[in-house]
Amino acid sequence: MLYLWVKWVHVVSSTILFGTGIGTAFFMFMANRRKEVAGIAFASRHVVIADWLFTTPAVIVQLLSGLWLVHLGGLELFGGWVLGGLMLYLFAGACWLPVVWMQIRMRDLANVAYASGEPLPPLYWTYERWWVILGALAFPAIVVVFYLMVVKP
Fold first, then answer.
1. Which stretches does DSSP call E strand in 11-150?
2. Number of C-beta neighbours around residue 109 at 10 A
3. Model-level pTM?
């Protein structure tokens, strides 16, 4: 029974992680494509909030519940699909941490530009470029982690 409860927590947190991640990324990506400072300020402010409220706790719960499931299931942590999934999860996390920092900076730059009526500075667009690149690297890694968790090859 404990295993099923932990698995349920793991599945729910993975849903929150994936759903919030793809939803907020889409929201901010589309706001950036329009290049309207007011919309970008609004989107970036809410993306940062969503990351703190949903994504960050889900990232922590995913790791802890995943490790707990490995233990409860008697699986080898450093072998097979578990190791592959863990490595990809850590890779995605290594991409995500600078993205969080950039989103905060992007939010601040957008808020200043909006308040002053000025366009976004070039630094904003530099962050945005790296934000897209890191997201494009992390997303397929997480998709493969989902595959490994479901198929357990």
1. none
2. 21
3. 0.90
